[in-house]
Amino acid sequence: MSEQALSDSFRWKDYVLFNGGNIDEIWNKTYYTQSRRILYILGSGFDIRMTNGLSILLRNCPDADITCLLIDFEKSGLSHHNIHEKANEQNRLLLNSMLPSNRISIKTIRIYADTNENHTERQYIGDESVVAEIFKAWEEIEPFSDIYLDVSSLSRGIYISLSGKILSILDQPQPASRLRRINFFIVATENAAMDALIKEEGLVGRPQFLRGFSLTFSPFETVKPLLWLPMLGEDKQTYLQATYEELKGKKQKLEICPVLPFPSRDPRRSDNLFAGHHHALFDELTVDFNNVIYVPEQNPYEVYLGLVRTIVRFNRSMKLLGGCRVAISPFSSKLLSVGAMLASYELYKFRKSDKIDVGVITTVSESYGKLDQSLLIDLHKDSELFVIWAAGDPYPIVDNLTL
Amino acid sequence: MIRTSEKIDSESFFLKLFSHLALESLAEKGKNGELWGHLYFIHSSPGAGKTSILRVFQPTTLLALLRGHNQHKDLFNFMKGIDALNDDKINVLGVFLPIREYGSLAYSPLSSHQRQRIFNALLNARLTLALLKSILDFAGMTFPDGLAQIKCTYQDVNNHFKGLSLPCTGLDLYQWAVNIENQIAQAMDSFNPEDILGKEGHDEPFVFSCFHPTSFSLDQLALPKRFLFMMDDVHSLPLEQRKYIKQYLNTRRLPVSIWLAERLSALSPEENLGNQEGRDYGIINIERYWSRNPRQYRKLLSNIAETRASMSADDIEAFESYLQEQNQYLEGETTESVYENELKSLRTLTDHSVKYFPWYQYLEKKKESIYEKTVLCRLINILLHREQSRTQLSLDFESSSVEISQKLSNASSLKSSAAFFVARQHKLPYYTGFDNLVTISNYNIQQFLIFSAALFEHVLAQQLINRNEGLLTAPNQERVLKQVAQELWNNLPRLVNQKVVNFLRELTKYAEKESLRPTVPYAPGVTGFAITQNYRHELFDEKAHWLSNPVYVSLATVLSDCVAYNLLIPEEITQGTKGTRHTVYYLNRWLCIHFNLVVGFGGWRHRKLDDLIKWLK
After folding, report:
1. Which among A78, A161, A349 has the least Cβ separation from residue B560?
2. With an 8 Å Cβ cutoff, are A217 and B106 in contact?
3. CA distance B266 to chain A (A)
4. Would the CA dihedral through A76, A78, A84, A85 be positive or negative?
5. B190 to chain A: closest CA residue
6. By C-alpha distance, which of B398, B394, B365, B360 is closest to B380?
7. Percentage helix, strand, coil, to 5, in chain B?
8. Could you tell me if A382 and A193 are in contact, meaning their C-beta atoms sit under 8 angstroms apart?
9. How many helices (H) and strands (E) does chain B have?
10. pLDDT tens-digit profile of A179-188?
11. How many angstroms away from the CA of B173 is the closest CA of chain A?
12. Verdict on whether the full-model pTM lies above 0.90
């Protein structure tokens, strides 16, 4: 199949992405009249980018009918005392000042569960909780015309599974009585310099596959080659090693293709990541130099296309062995992680006949290190808003795609 | 050096590395005929050897042992002794099931009863697959290729195997099990949590009781007379499922051999207490067994070290002998000036009273090496500090030499503390010798291999440079061990939160301060703590316990991380009034090396919660 034909078979081959100046094309008074109802979902957190998307939406569309769903996280017995409590609180106050209280609903989910009676071990269940607790019924989203999921202050364990859930709900046949499709957008305020400053600390449990994107490795199944695509970010050597050990323990034939961001806003970023992970990748994991994949830092759809092409080609080359399975680790920025989610969702959850098992495996960090808020505020001036239109009006209704 | 059993691919290679001594904890039960037809829990920390023990009983390993019994005589004879095999056949078919991929079940929208049924179905499916694989392994056939040749003659009178018509072939059974596994796995990963509600599940994990060796045939091959179901990493099960399966197996009292291996950290405090009276199952706590049989543990490690050393390099057989002992070095290196320093320190303590003069005379008369006299001098220093710190006034009578001998004999337990003080003060090597290596291992074979591997590399390097240079000197050993400990410490921030690092740093500072008190009240030195809220069985009430107090959330998390990463080793100790039980958190011995603490166990202090909280900053 030619490259063009291959690309034509992908769900998001034609995509809609807004960023920077062209956000006004969608976020304007003409589009968002009172007839449209927006559900804006965001996470409670310390990141000053938490309310950035909502504030721009409100500024551009002051008359829009907006309901906010704030996902909060239960401070279970084994959560670390949150050193960012003050920043959390400031963000909450800011949110409360943007919308009347009857427009903000809060959903609190558990993110940890004890795995022993001593309460000395725990497991991350944020992804399980968000799938179980958010949108239990179609009726919860039915009243809305547009759903925005702002991932700026959500951890990857939450937004990846939640994005998948929302897509899966919208991909189901909608009631005949419904005249208008529901649009789904993913919003991210991107700033690689700020991301680099927010250091994840410690590991909770072992790396795990996220709900909705899990692969099961039975010791009794025929072993297929496993392609691992770790998407690298700054200082992720420990997560890389931990995930490698976890995948190696599944006793699969492992092929590793690291994913680096290029082109990127900082043109040296991929070089720096390459250098920073050199020992881990090439000495410890013995990755082949030729296996490195480059995807654009600031276009999740191009990330998605790059990943899907790679996976499809690899799967075809492994045809004699029954194909392959794929594990993607989104250790990088949110836009790249969204691209990973789209790739996994299409190949694993959406396709019926040409399905490829593509899971998302990640680590969960204990907490985040201390931050210089004034520096973050300063860096935030260079943040850029991205609005990824993932489902709805621009896209044809597709029942099945064939590779 | 290969450290984990899972990474050793070939059975014969595994058998070469495996020491029969690792099975000693089973020996007594085997001799008493209690090993088979019972339920056993095998408990240990990570790296203590649970999985290796289970691996020995798998059919491929037992068959390799049978074929190569001449090369592995000790292990072969041991396994014969416990009726795992005899001269011409194996008597047990080990069915090995690693516990994985059950985590998401706990968080489904099912009721507790529904979760139990789904769990039963999944377990039945996987145990069936594990059993079929074991049968094919026993027959020397590839899984799943040979399944059609297996005949299952089980009569399903209770209609357990819905959707399957029995008797059937192994292939039919395989497909039945795979279907269940796939359907449940897909439902559990679905974005719609309701999908799992449509799955029926099973009433109980009936595979344990349904299948016997007589239920299966494979051509003319006679299967071993018993199955041994082995579930590894049971701690990976969600809490609810773990409790359920343990309770089920315990109450059913099936006449089947079932072993469940799990980590100590998964146990409840009640389980950890080790009171086995009145229970219908056995517990094999690997570390506890070794701590009660230290000689055998030492022998095991010696055996492991020799085997691996001899496989790595032809010229090195007795690895132990390449490690210079501390006293060997110190007897050559301790100078008069060190002894004089100790004497000076003693004089400072005692010059105000002549009653201490006989102690000097006693010392002077001793015909021992300078090092021994130096340690003795420090021991006397400790004893006299203790005497002087007593509030009761003593009359200024001199002690006779008989009394002095008696006092020193009664204080023999302080000798190791004295040696530690001498080493610290005069910067002499302390962490040396094979016995020290055994202690550092914390009854954990994997930890032993980490440190011994580093020493072994230096021994090899030494040999390469100078073949006649046998001994790795005490200072070099200490340097190597400290390097390994330093690397482990440097790696820690990548694994745990900074609070954990802070806590450990403060704990070791406290331990050092308490250990270096001149009276050594907590011999051989403090390396652990217990939380002051004394915990008794009847008080373990979640509503009252400090763990549920939000003020101590961060402390609970830090302790949980420390236990999970084997940085603190919890041990239940009965001490004090009315048999009070304490959970003492001991530092892992590698931390003791890094922070220059004693490596012997025993010394610990109570600490209040509010004091511990301060250590997080």
Report:
1. A78
2. no
3. 5
4. positive
5. A212
6. B360
7. 60, 10, 30
8. yes
9. 25, 12
10. 678 999 999 9
11. 13
12. no
